């Protein structure tokens, strides 16, 4: 079996190091040691830690399964719930210690790196658009109230989820996720009141 390239080793190791220690605490030496490659090889593939972080944020977005939110073979609310269940299960798998890389970087470095801030915004915008698309489908099918604004609600869902992640990491429990699911799927995303005849 062929060995992965040093670039791939660095990217995979850095994603884990950034998730575990954060951006600022992760040095190039930490990343190359975790990757098992010489420190000098880092600069053969990336001009800086920031450049590496930009690559990782792009790849991270590809792992969020956003395409599943537009799968019209699945009912819209089923898609939305499954999306957040996937994200919740991922956090539980890591013992509530990782959070979301977009949110983590957003809190840590968005004020200090324009390039990273822009990439983080792009990631959140893409995510929000995917959520809004599923919400529009749910309005069309009558699964949620037609007065719900898909774009505003998508931003709210994303913000509420990121807040639940922070609370879950702090408490090392799923309680904030339970509250998210209860309020979002039992209270917010419900059909409107219909007239009875």
CATH architecture of the largest domain: Orthogonal Bundle
Low-confidence residue ranges: none
- Strand residue content: under 5%
DSSP summary: helix tally: 9
Label the overall shape: elongated
Order of helices and strands: HHHHHHHHH
Distance between the terminal alpha carbons, to the nearest Å?
69 Å
Oligomer status: single chain
Characterization of the model:
The structure is a single chain. The protein is built from nine helices and no strands. The mean pLDDT is 93. 69% of the residues lie in helices and 0% in strands. It folds into two domains: 6-57, Orthogonal Bundle (Arc Repressor Mutant, subunit A); 64-188, Tetracycline Repressor, domain 2 (Orthogonal Bundle). The termini are far apart. The longest helix has 27 residues, at 114-140. The protein has 197 residues and is mainly alpha-helical.
């Amino acid at each position: 079996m062929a060995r992965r390239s040093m670039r791939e080793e660095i990217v995979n190791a850095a994603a884990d190091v950034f998730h575990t220690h954060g951006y600022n605490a992760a040095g190039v030496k930490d990343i190359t040691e975790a990757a098992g490659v010489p420190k000098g090889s880092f600069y053969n593939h990336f001009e800086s830690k920031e450049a590496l972080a930009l690559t990782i944020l792009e790849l991270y977005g590809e792992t969020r399964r956003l395409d599943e939110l537009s799968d019209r073979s699945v009912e819209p609310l089923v898609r939305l719930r499954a999306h957040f269940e996937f994200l919740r299960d991922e956090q539980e798998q890591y013992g509530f210690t990782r959070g979301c890389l977009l949110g983590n970087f957003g809190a840590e470095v968005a004020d200090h790196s324009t390039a990273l801030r822009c990439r983080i915004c792009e990631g959140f915008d893409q995510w929000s658009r995917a959520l809004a698309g599923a919400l529009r489908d749910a309005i069309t099918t009558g699964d949620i109230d037609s007065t719900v604004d898909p774009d505003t609600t998508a931003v709210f869902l994303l913000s509420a989820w990121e807040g639940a992640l922070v609370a879950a990491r702090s408490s090392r429990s799923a309680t904030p996720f339970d509250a998210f699911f209860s309020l979002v799927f039992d209270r917010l995303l419900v059909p409107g009141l219909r007239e009875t005849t």
